[in-house]
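Protocol step 4 of 5: obtain the predicted structure for the target chain.
Materials: sequence only (see below). No template structures provided, no constraints applied. The aim of this step is simply to have a reference model before the mutagenesis design in step 5. Sequence pasted as it appears in the construct record:
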Amino acid sequence: MSGFWLSFIPKKSSYTLSGQRAKTIKNLLCYKDNVTNILTETREFIASGVNFENATCQSCKACLLDWWQGAMVAAYLKKTGFISRDITMPCCHKVTTLNNLIIIFTGPYILQ
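Step 4 output (structure tokens):
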């Protein structure tokens, strides 16, 4: 059985989606009878698990595929999930966050 994920990820890491807002979003969807709300207490990396192609720097567009996985591991804590912290890019030395990386997926159903 195939599935479809629609993830709403706020720009501000401190934003919390209330249960009522989640219900409102669910009611706007066409297939609302088959929708499950999943609200997490911690920050998580949300991905389809397939069709991951690349991670690039937002500033200089350098390929970060080899660096990205280590940066993700370093930013993850078991009890709190992903922490929000500034990182210095290895390519152009700009200060940014992991949220600002350009993550590229390929496939027919990817919306960016």
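Step 4 remarks: The longest strand covers residues 52-56. The mean pLDDT is 76.
Proceed to step 5.
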